Amino acid sequence: MDKNLTDKRIVECWHKNVSPWTRAVRDGEIASRELLTNQAIIDAVLASKPTTVLDLGCGEGWLTRALAQRGILAVGVDAVAELIHAARLYKQPNNNSIGTPPTYQHLSYEQIIAGALSDKFDTVTCNFSLLGKESVEGLFVTFRRLLSRKGQIVIQTPHPLSNAQPPYQSGWRSGSWAGFSDAFTDPAPWYFRTLKDWRALFDQNQLTITQEISPTLEGEKPSSIIFVARSS
Ligand SMILES: C[S@@+](CC[C@H](N)C(=O)[O-])C[C@H]1O[C@@H](n2cnc3c(N)ncnc32)[C@H](O)[C@@H]1O
After folding, report:
1. Global pTM?
2. Whose CA is closest to atom 27 on ligand 1?
3. Would the CB of 157 count as within 6 Å of ligand 1?
4. For a Cys-Cys bond, which of 89, 118, 204, 206 suits 232, CB 3.0-4.6 Å?
């Protein structure tokens, strides 16, 4: 197998793209996010009225800020120290009040799987941040430990039926920054999962999917899928 197609490599690639990524997210350069998927994940998280939310792979922190503005105690974690630094440094424009500001921890999924987080949350969310193979399988084993009673998992990921490069079977794919600015370099590989294999991951880890939402722009294929799940 290509030695670049690994979970470790994913994080290495994100290290190299901190500045363009932070700019793209904060300046609204990613059209699908602005038009559709940002609001979709916010709505999906808010639907169960959580008090506390853990955002795994939070990047520069936009979702934690959006949730804090709605009164939620949000904690973001990411393996890339520079992204956590950018999240902590963010200054709200025009002194907008954002309730209790989010807090951040520089942690990898592998550290969380090994027990680095002892708190429990009403909702654990992952917005386009479950990209690997073993790290994602390990997180699924860990989710129940991170959830308070009646807690929920809310995961948004590219829709497998719209974003498959043939063949339609789970496996590693090379990354691409097509559609992004030239400032991006070294795209991260990702582990593609079929819809059936995503559902099996929940099932194998005693998590019941309660809702599948497919954000879709008019006349287009579903852009993403949001799985909402709870402990079985
Ligand atoms: C596409 S970005 C999404 C960031 C953010 N959730 C958002 O919506 O903008 C993927 C994020 O997952 C993080 N990530 C990937 N693998 C990780 C791992 N093993 N441990 C922690 N974070 C990881 C990356 O550092 C990156 O910030």
Report:
1. 0.97
2. 59
3. no
4. 206
